[in-house]
Automatic annotation (TrEMBL):
MF terms in GO: 2-isopropylmalate synthase activity
Region (Regulatory domain) location: 390-505
Domain Pyruvate carboxyltransferase: 4-266
Source organism superkingdom: Bacteria
One Pfam entry name: LeuA_dimer
Top EC group: transferase
Entry protein name: 2-isopropylmalate synthase
Cofactor annotation: Mn(2+)
Pathway: Amino-acid biosynthesis; L-leucine biosynthesis; L-leucine from 3-methyl-2-oxobutanoate: step 1/4
Reaction(s) catalysed (UniProt annotation): 3-methyl-2-oxobutanoate + acetyl-CoA + H2O = (2S)-2-isopropylmalate + CoA + H(+)
Subunit composition and interactions: Homodimer.
Span of the signal peptide: none
Amino acid sequence: MRKIQFFDTTLRDGEQTPGVNFNTKEKIQIAQQLEKWGIDVIEAGFPIASDGDFEAVQNIARNVKKMTVAGLARCQKKDIDRAYEALQDAVHPQIHIFLATSDVHMKYKLKMTETEVLASIKEHVSYARNLFEKVQFSPEDASRTEKSFLLKAVQTAIDAGATIINVPDTVGYSNPTEYGALFKFLIDNIQSEQEIIFSSHCHDDLGMATANALAAIENGANRVEGTVNGIGERAGNTALEEVALALYIRNDFYQANSQIELAETKRTSDLVARLSSIPVPKNKAIIGENAYAHESGIHQDGVLKNPETYEIITPSLVGVNKNSLPLGKLSGRHAFVAKLAELGYQLSDDELKTAFARFKSLADKKKQITDDDLIALLTDQHREETEQCKLSSVQVQYSSNGFQGAIVSITDSNDQTKVASTIGSGSIQAIYNAIDEIFDQDVSLTEYEIQAITAGEDAQAEVRVLLTDEKNQQTYRGVGIDFDVLQASAKAYVAASNQVFTKNI
Ligand code: KIV
Ligand code: ZN
């Protein structure tokens, strides 16, 4: 049985999702969960991109023991040196160098000829090979590269010391037949004395990222790159949970397996959804809320008689717990701690104290506290703990005609509280005007979404916002959860404003 390696780029390509910015603490948390999930290689970031990226890659390199830790670099010595520095403490370091090889990229983006591109690959892959044992090369936009030139680029990288060749479908242009054939062509035609790992890297612009990755595996790729929940640049990357399950459920067909701990899948997905503020669509394969729900009477009847009639995946296989018992007002600290452990949370004593107090306060307002409520509660606590400027209070004056008024106060990390009182056409606009005044920011609200976390009138509200900073057109996401919709709206806006503020310091 072939073993397929999993390369996770949630912290690099995944962080290229508009508005997603993980802080270092969050990146370490995700890395640790990826290790539990069974990922072979984690792309921790792009060390030259910023001091924050460098620090995150370095911290992950120091915290991760089993996985190989990779850092991205362009074909430039300064990028390779910076990646080397960041990865020095990794048990298994790897560099990932890329250079575009398609005509359109070489002509318009790089302004380089084919000869110059080949020379650069040779120079930089050899340079990296002196520093790293594991060198991965990616001919960016490989799927739109003229085939004979792609082969030359790949052969040049191998001759210069690359041991891993990643074949990116950078713009999600390929299809399974074509992408699979590209792997077969490269594998059949390269010359190498040592074993080369071939890896897929697909984007989902035409909705074929998972199918393309599986076609690559069928045609000899032994590594797959992707992200958790498929987040990433534009339409995103191959969703790794989909590939892991396809290999497991259709093992008869693929005759290949992985070391992914399937039971950790839901937990990994939840963590990334929570920290990226990108919710998983209800109909998403494997981890979507509806993936194991049966609506039609005929289906329900079939599943009751034998789940295999309509269920190819048992929810527990991927860690979806359908029979979880909710907590309530009378649940004690013991039950609360046991539930957190069941959900995979490890809290410090202080965090636990705060979480239990919040739980009790929620249980006073809401009859049944479900797993989703608890995850939401901890998400909100985490948001508050990592924020520099915290929402202290919101007061709204509502009038059924005319303007609405809001008074908001926010406390910064030096314990200085600022208060603003503003009006708006609606209550939320009034609150947001006040927050803008306190942060002294010029932003526009690009997205606003509100969702109930559970069914029922006593449900908590989850508000998601996307702000665009007018100065540089950068986007920032924020999530706020509260029993009250106005408070949740204010929390979400403060969360995103904190990121605008941190970026502009
Ligand atoms: O999509 C892409 O081409 C990339 C490369 C850096 C591998 O992300
Ligand atoms: Zn990519």
